[in-house]
């Protein structure tokens, strides 16, 4: 059985692949910092909302979570994302996200560090 924080991180990742901006935004703090290693850093919920709008490209995604580990206010999720574009071309990405919550119980995500590699 998953803990409440494990459930939060699983649902957050599922919302990302489904493009559920509402769920994503309600899961983070207003001062969210999302660092995508080797890419951009998003600071603040307004900038995150703009970035999410830019991600709507019509691709279909499938999430495969391999590990979901939590301890206190921190968590790590890794796995594979399968992407299929409109023409049917598939791409696969291995990811690892490190999360920090603003508080241990009923917290929201205040920091994310993401590592993504096409495989």
UniProtKB/TrEMBL annotation:
Residues 10-111 form the SnoaL-like domain. The keyword Isomerase applies. InterPro entries: NTF2-like_dom_sf, SnoaL-like. The keyword Isomerase applies. Transmembrane segments: none annotated. It comes from Gracilibacillus orientalis. Keywords: Isomerase. Gene3D superfamilies: 3.10.450.50. This is Ketosteroid isomerase homolog. It comes from the Bacteria. Pfam families: SnoaL_2. GO terms for molecular function: isomerase activity.
């Amino acid at each position: 059985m998953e803990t409440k924080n494990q459930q939060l991180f699983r649902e957050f990742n599922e919302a990302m692949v489904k493009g559920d901006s509402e769920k994503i935004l309600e899961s983070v703090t207003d001062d969210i910092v999302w660092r995508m290693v080797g890419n951009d850093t998003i600071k603040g919920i307004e900038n995150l909302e703009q970035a999410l709008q830019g991600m709507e490209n019509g691709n279909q995604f499938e999430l495969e979570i391999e590990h979901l580990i939590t301890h206190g206010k921190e968590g790590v999720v890794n796995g594979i994302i399968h992407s299929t574009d409109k023409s049917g071309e598939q791409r696969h990405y291995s990811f690892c996200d490190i999360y920090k919550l603003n508080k241990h119980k009923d917290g929201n995500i205040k920091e994310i560090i993401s590592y993504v590699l096409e495989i």
